[in-house]
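Input record (one chain):
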Amino acid sequence: MTKLGMIGGGVMGEALISRLIAQKIYSPADILVSEPLQERRNFLATTYQIQVTDDNRLAAAAEVLFLAIKPQVFQTVVDRLNIDPVPSSASPSLVISILAGTPLSKLEAAFPGKSIIRAMPNTPATVGAGVTAIAAGQHTQPEQLAQAQQLFTAVGEVVQVTEAQMDAVTGLSGSGPGYIALVIEALADGGVAAGLPRAIATQLAIQTVKGTAQLLQDSGLHPGQLKDQVTSPGGTTIAGIAQLEKAGLRSALIEAVRAAYLRSQELGR
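The corresponding structure, as predicted from the sequence alone:
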């Protein structure tokens, strides 16, 4: 029996597969991915030596089923699986979903009697630097929760939350890479406006954000403390911060998280 079945062979699914194989959590022979696009199936099979198919039912027969599809096609996919409303050993014992805005109640109705874990990873998972929030369903056992944590640790850090907090997670860490990319682009534009070549400005912006995050993580400093440490009286940094406050950067980011949170709630209705 296949150990890990995956429906959807996109970027996030590939990130997980690559790291699970690299860290020897699963061997390529243990993994079966169902993907509708022939070109994508060929790429995954060639690159990772895993099993591929266009039949979702084969993936759903694995010990662990990983749902990595768009939430808009969830019901269509589930309907075509023809899942028996009476639980049986023929379907997976653990289902892990990364579908944004798809609640545990909907997942549990689609996979009756099965252990369900809802997860929200983010795109830095593709380089092993992501963070994933997981919420367990009513049938999930402690060892299954630990298994899910092990899977997502392969692509970064893992936090456990209640499902009620999952929309907030989506607004912050799920959508957050987009906000930070925008900040980096703006910093680089500022460097260009001040006279730096584009390539150097971009390199400086990326490494500044990366290094600051690493420093905060390693030192345990509160962000406000680090800000105070680099802000000299009458210096350049406070001049820049004053402009950021005037432009409302802080409130803009807060409202961005809230807007994404509210949109995640809408998707779940």
